[in-house]
Amino acid sequence: MFKVPALDYDYGDLAPAISKHIMELHHDKHHQAYVDKLNAALEQSPELGSRTLLNLLTNLDSVPEAIRTAVRNQGGGHYNHTLFWKFMAPHAGGEPSGNLGKALNDKFGDFQKFTEAFEAKAGSVFGSGWAWLMPDLSIVTTPNQDNPVMNGGTSPLLGVDVWEHAYYLDYLNKRADYLKAWWNVINWPFVEARFAQNNDAELAF
Questions:
Q1: Cα distance between residue 63 and residue 68, in whole Å
Q2: How far apart are CA 54 and CA 70, in angstroms?
Q3: End-to-end CA distance of the chain
């Protein structure tokens, strides 16, 4: 049985970029719903009980067809959000340092140009989805609760949730304002650590 992980900070610690109200709803309601529905689906196939979430998501073809869509959607929601909470921290933001900071500057010219490219990609998502910074420093998007690992890719270094439930209570329809504010809570040490280890460590769920 999968569980929603506890946050490493209090609900209100990311304000004003992300309000306490949104964090409570997003973590306790939306993320919990993904986990509940994932567990309900897996109860139909107890032979999958020993597999990790990452194993399930990277081998969706081996999941019984009757629950495959549920595992993709609900398991993806669990995986993405577990990462999302780690991507953020209070009293964070600024710019990445070390090898990641240098690599981003080399690829994009400077940090400002990187954020502009990332915001443009995230803003281009039609409807609900995510934007991701990949280990090769490409910027990609996925619809719904999909993740690049589902298509044979690696786990992203960084990602932003652009479902409306992630920002609407604070920013209404102004996704661009949410994206600009989001940089103020990025947990760069966590992202830098993922870059340093080439993202080959499986997350613990």
A1: 6
A2: 15
A3: 10
The structure tokens listed for 28 are 């306790």
**Which CATH code fits 98-196?**
3.55.40.20
pLDDT tens digits, 57-113: 999 999 999 999 999 999 999 999 999 999 999 999 999 999 999 999 999 999 999
The pair of structure tokens assigned to 142 is: 């996925």
Separation between Cα atoms, residue 191 and residue 96, nearest integer Å: 8
The H or E element that residue 161 is part of is strand 158-161
pLDDT tens digits, one per residue of 131-146:
999 999 999 999 999 9
Domain layout of the chain by residue ranges: 19-87, 98-196
> How many helices and strands in the chain, by DSSP H and E?
10, 3
Measured between alpha carbons, how far is 29 from 40 in angstroms, rounded to an integer? 16
CATH of domain 19-87: 1.10.287.990
